[in-house]
Each structure stands twice: as structure tokens, then as C-alpha cells.
Amino acid sequence: MGLESIPPGRIATIVTYLDMRARPKRAPMPDSPLRLVRWPAPVDGEKYRTLFARIGGPWLWFSRLAMADEKLEAILRDDGVEIFAVEDRQGIEVGMLELDFREAGQCELAYLGLVPELAGQGHGRWLMAEALARAWRQDVERVHVQTCTLDHPGALGFYIRSGFTPRGRAVESFDDPRLNGLLPREMAPHVPIIEG
Q1: What is the CATH number of the domain that holds 37?
Q2: What long-range pairs does 182-185 form, CB within 8 A, spacing at least 24?
Q3: pLDDT of residue 107
């Protein structure tokens, strides 16, 4: 058993890859006061990044914040990518669902999340049910997702309870997005900032 040192200014996480290879049995849709609203293409990149940061900032989601505008816009314009906002009763965007159908026969739950204030209220079950209902199309043979140890502590268990099976793991390290200005320094206080 060995430990690998992570240099100051960087963070490491364990990523778990999960998939579902059979359509789940039909079940009643959980009740929720929330609703999904599909964003029409082309999706506005700044609007997308703002919602992405509101949902994922506490878990250090930063990939779409660091991505070059042209690359993000190519994803947001792609016919194989569907993006939905989760809205509350007042029409305030409080979550997102991004489905990626660009690989034939597969759907990736690229992003699925709610603002932290909604955690633990049962809305995640509703959002997952909505996601799976949209992901399992006639030509889809596999739905997959990934999570990491920086995500909500209940994320991995939630995916497994939702019917996903862990298939692999990897260690990922990256520059701390709070040190390069992608996220505010006060984000994710449970992950200490270690500067050089």
C-alpha cells in the first residue's frame, strides 16, 4: 500500500464509473413541485455556466467553467446533447439535467444536480426518475454516469439505489479551481486549500 503526494495547489479525487444496462421497471413518477424545462438550442453559454456553478460549486464542479467558449458552445449546440433546467414553482432555476446521446446506443447522464438548499428533500429521486425516463430511448442499450469523492457524500449510494452498477474507478488530480479564480475561495470548505 502506498500514498502518492499531491503537490500544493492541486486536489485529488477518486472517480467511480457506473452504468445501467437494462431499462428499469416502470414505476410511478415521484411527486415534486419542481419541473423540467428543456433549454432550446443554442443554449446560452453564460446562462449555462451560471447555473452549473450554482449547483456544482460546493462540490468543486469546474470543468465547464474552465472549458474554452468554443468547445462549450459546440457541446451546447450539438443535437445529441439535451439540457434541461429544473425550475421551482416561481420559475427559478434550481437544478439541471444534461443528457448526452452523442455515442450511439448510449446515454450519459453528463450532469444531474440540484442547488444545495434542496438536498435531502426527495427531489433527487424525482430528478433521477425524470432523467431515466428521458435517457432510455428505443435505441439506448446503456445509460452511464460518474461521480467522485468530492461530490455530495450521498451521491454514490444514490446512484446505486437508483439502479446503477459501479464498473470502475480512477484517481483524478487537477489544479484547485479556487486558486485560479474559476470558483470563489469560500466554495467547498470541506476541502482545504493547500497553497505552495
Answers
A1: 3.40.630.30
A2: 182/62, 182/65, 182/66, 183/53, 183/57, 183/60, 183/62, 183/65, 184/57
A3: 98
